[in-house]
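Please review this one:
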Amino acid sequence: MVKPLLVGIDGGGTKTRVMARRVGEFRPLLDRAYPESNYQSIGMSAVTRVLGLILDDLRPFFPPDHREVSLAMGMAGIDRESDVELYLAALRELGYEGRAVACNDARIALMGAHGGDVGAIVICGTGSIATGLTADGRELRAGGWGALAGDEGSGYRLGIEGISAVFRAYDGSGAETGLTRQLLALYGKTTVPDLLDVLDGGDGLPVRAVAAAARPVLELSETDGVCREIVRRQAAALAGVAGALASRMGRPDFPLALMGGLLRNVPGYADLFLTNLKSAYPDINITSPQGDAAQGALLLAERLYGQGRWKGTDL
């Protein structure tokens, strides 16, 4: 007898990771990366194509009764019930018949980081968000409102500030910066006005292209005053988002895990962020995440399977 299948999908701003395993087993049947799946960046038709690729790879593992599949997807760009329905409708359009739940990717990251227990996370990579689970079961959120309205401290925000600083330096309305030469080389451009090409996202925002500028901004921040101020300002902004969450957690010493490339792989930036945050909330307990977002999605899929229904977001 083929056991039911659990599927966890982590749809971040730059790639989508999918894990699948049988109920009661721990060996993954599938652990694979796919293109990004944030509809606010690439459009829903492109997302549907990515989901189609995923389902094609999963179908050989489906039980004979396809309703015995439990799928949880946490996707960057899901912020409202209408967003949830877009993703669930795409699954229906692709012929998926199992159980499904869709939520913001920060929710699955939170579950993975603390195994579904009390705690909080701050994710900072291409975008940024802070989420937490309190002792009385409340799910909290701060930030994560997208590149146009939020994503404080993120790669996108560092990048767009860096590009803007280069334009100001070109105009003479801002200070000269070594970032000009770095960004022209990064994007393969000859003149500063040519950088406008980077900002042309076609059908969506050029989030990844802009976020690529974060690296030279961070690298130059030790020697270039313009970059140093950008980094200082964005680290403080990210700490402000985390502080807004901390003020609602209900206890001062809650565990907080740092996630995302900028906080995990750029120690100087993480230190600057923590210095800002700890000045206001010194008792926060900084911990390492127990698992990642894809593992959190699998945990959510397992809970969905056990409950049979998940708050009206089933297919």
Observations:
- Residues 225-246 form the longest helix (22 residues).
- The beta strands are 5-11, 15-22, 30-35, 69-75, 99-104, 119-124, 128-133, 139-142, 255-259, 285-287.
- The chain has 13 helices and ten strands.
- The domain at 5-113+292-307 is CATH 3.30.420.40 (Nucleotidyltransferase; domain 5).
